[in-house]
């Protein structure tokens, strides 16, 4: 039996997939609004669970775990696709960590997996060989032909991260960049509105509406059009929630974020009531 922490879109999708392989228990009730992470004392954790899964940073709604869940002796499985290499964490607290490369590691097409050795060999019989970590470990991650160029680029990214202060350096920059945008939102008298509770706001993905909590479609379209003219692309919110979303992954510089902040301030001054 697996357990899933449904605190965002990707957790909900993971839970749906997991039902193909066994019984799933949601430790948090399903909701249509992802703005907070309830205190862990309220979670419905079962000591008989095979594992507990969570997504460390939900890119769609902008909710990020500021802590590592304590699951006692139950293996903890985490999707860190969008915040790997952006903050230090204790790897020993996890059973499995996986992360798609496409946010902070390198080009799409590579997945990083860290698995506790005692969990190898526990894959379900229905698990495809290409997803069987036991096979991958035995074959030194070379069971199939690897994407060599993508792996090469990853190496260059790792060198760049080390040159710029390592993971701690990335964390400092992530805090600085996200604070710039959140500060504008919080001082705009709800002209810019972010529904996510302050303690769990993502440092990687800052979603917000323009013109109030429900957003003003005309203002948001004007904002996006103006941003595009300035070379600021992909600021439209995820299609499932709308609004605006600024993604601040490691490759986004402080100067990039400051340029966005200047535009946000100018837009606010022009359109505030």
Could you describe the 3D structure shown?
- This protein has 273 residues and is α/β, with parallel strands linked by helices.
- The chain has six helices and eleven strands.
- A six-stranded mixed sheet has the order 2-1-3-6-7-8, covered by helices on one side.
- The radius of gyration is 20 Å and the shape is globular.
Instruction: Please state the average pLDDT score.
Output: 91
Portion in helices? 25-40%
Would you tell me the structural class of the helices and strands?
alpha/beta
Identify low-pLDDT runs.
Answer: none
Fraction of residues in β-strands: 15-25%
Globally, the shape reads: globular
Give me the secondary-structure topology.
Elements: E1 2-4, H1 9-18, E2 24-26, E3 51-55, E4 57-58, E5 63-64, E6 76-79, E7 96-100, E8 111-115, H2 133-138, H3 148-163, H4 166-186, E9 192-193, E10 205-210, H5 217-229, E11 244-247, H6 254-271
Parallel strand pairs: 1-2, 1-3, 3-6, 6-7
Antiparallel strand pairs: 4-5, 7-8, 9-10, 10-11
Helix pairs in contact: 3-4, 4-6
């Amino acid at each position: 039996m697996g357990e899933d922490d449904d605190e965002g879109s990707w957790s909900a999708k993971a839970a749906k997939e997991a039902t193909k392989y066994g019984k799933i228990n949601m430790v948090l009730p399903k909701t249509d609004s992802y703005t907070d992470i309830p205190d862990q004392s309220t979670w419905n954790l079962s000591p008989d669970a095979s594992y507990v899964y969570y997504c460390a940073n939900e890119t769609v709604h902008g909710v990020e775990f500021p802590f590592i869940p304590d699951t006692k002796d139950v293996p903890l499985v985490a999707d860190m696709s969008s915040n790997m290499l952006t903050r230090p964490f204790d790897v020993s607290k996890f059973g499995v960590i996986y992360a798609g490369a496409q946010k902070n590691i390198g080009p799409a097409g590579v997945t990083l997996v860290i698995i506790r050795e005692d969990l190898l060999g526990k894959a379900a019989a229905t698990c495809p060989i290409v997803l069987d970590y036991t096979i991958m470990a035995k074959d030194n991650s070379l069971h199939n032909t690897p994407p060599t160029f993508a792996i090469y680029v990853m190496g260059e990214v790792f060198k760049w991260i080390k040159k710029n202060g390592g993971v701690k350096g990335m964390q400092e920059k992530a805090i600085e960049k996200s604070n710039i945008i959140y500060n504008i939102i919080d001082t705009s008298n709800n002209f810019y509105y972010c529904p996510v509770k302050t303690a769990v706001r993502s440092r990687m993905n800052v979603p917000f509406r323009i013109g109030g909590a429900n957003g003003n479609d005309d203002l948001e379209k004007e904002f996006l059009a103006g941003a595009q003219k300035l070379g600021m692309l992909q600021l439209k919110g995820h299609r499932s929630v709308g609004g605006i979303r600024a993604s601040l992954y490691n490759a986004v510089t402080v100067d990039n974020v400051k340029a966005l902040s200047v535009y946000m301030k100018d837009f606010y001054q022009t359109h505030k009531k």
